[in-house]
Amino acid sequence: MNKKKEFFSKNNFRIGGHRGSPKKFRENSIKSFYRAIDDGASFIELDLRLTSDSRIVINHDDNINNLKIKETDYKTLFSQNSELLLFETVINDIMPHIFLDIEIKTDDAAVPAVKMLKDKIREDQFIITSFLESVIQAVSSENDKITTGLLIEEYPETSLKELMSRNKASYILPWDKITDTKMLNEAFSENIPLIIWTVDEIQRAEFLTNQPAVRAIISNVPEKMIFLQK
C-alpha cells in the first residue's frame, strides 16, 4: 500500500474529532483538542486561515466578532477571542500527540502552511484537506509527499475518480448528508477511500463502519464513537 495512505487503512477504522471535542469545549481551542485526545479520538480535524499580518490561525469562520480574519492582524483578533490558536502552537503542542486533519480554508494559507510544516514533522503525521481544488493542487505542487484530501458538500457532477485524478488527492471527504449508496458503491468499485464528515448518530456511524470504501468518520462527539475504532 502507498505509504501516504497507511494511517487511514482498510484494517484501521478511524474516528476523528471535528475541531476537537466541540460539544465539551470551544471548537478549535487547545482545551477542545486535548479533550478529543483524552476521549480516544485517533485524529483531530482543524481549520486554518491567514491573518493580515501573515499569521496562520485556527478558526473555522472567516471572521471573529465581525472582524474579517484576512483583513485583521493577529493581536486584534486575539483580543476578541483569547482562545484563538496559532498554527505553530498546534504543531508544537498538539501534533506530537495525535494525527491531524488540517483543513485549509483559503488559497493564501496553503503555501505558508506547507512551509511551516516542512522539516518540523513527518508527512505521515497529518493530512491536508480543503474544499478548494486550488489549495489541494498548490499543496501537491509545493510538496508532493503530503497526503491530501478533497472535501465535497454537494454531489459532484463528475466522477469521484476524476476528482481524485485531477487533484492528485489521496482521499475524498464527502459530507455525510450527500453520502448515499450510489456514492459508497462508486467509491468501492473505483477503490477510492472516503473520510465522512460530520457523523454524530451512532446508528449511522455503525453503518458507515461496515462500508468497505470508508476509512474514517469525523464527529462532533468522538467520545461516543471510539468503540467503532479498529
Notable traits:
single chain, 230 residues, alpha/beta, ten-stranded mixed sheet, two-stranded antiparallel sheet, 12 strands
In short:
This protein is 31% helix and 23% strand. It is α/β, with parallel strands linked by helices and 230 residues long.
Give unreliable regions as ranges: 1-5
Mean pLDDT: 95
Order of helices and strands: EHEEEEHEHEHEHEHEHEHEH
Q: What is the structural class?
A: alpha/beta
How many DSSP H or I helices? 9
DSSP E strands, number: 12
The separation of the N and C termini measures: 18 Å
Can you tell me about this structure?
It is a single chain. This protein has 230 residues and is of the alpha/beta class. The chain contains nine helices and twelve strands. It has helices at 30-39, 74-80, 87-94, 110-117, 133-142, 160-167, 181-189, 202-209, 222-225; strands spanning 14-18, 43-50, 56-58, 63-64, 67-68, 85-86, 99-104, 126-130, 148-152, 171-174, 194-197, 214-219. Strands 1, 2, 3, 6, 7, 8, 9, 10, 11 and 12 form a ten-stranded mixed β-sheet that branches. The chain has a two-stranded antiparallel ribbon with strand order 4-5. Strand 1 (14-18), helix 1 and strand 2 (43-50) form a beta-alpha-beta unit. The longest helix is centred in the first third of the chain and has 10 residues, at 30-39. The two termini are 18 Å apart.
List the helices and strands and how they pair.
Elements: E1 14-18, H1 30-39, E2 43-50, E3 56-58, E4 63-64, E5 67-68, H2 74-80, E6 85-86, H3 87-94, E7 99-104, H4 110-117, E8 126-130, H5 133-142, E9 148-152, H6 160-167, E10 171-174, H7 181-189, E11 194-197, H8 202-209, E12 214-219, H9 222-225
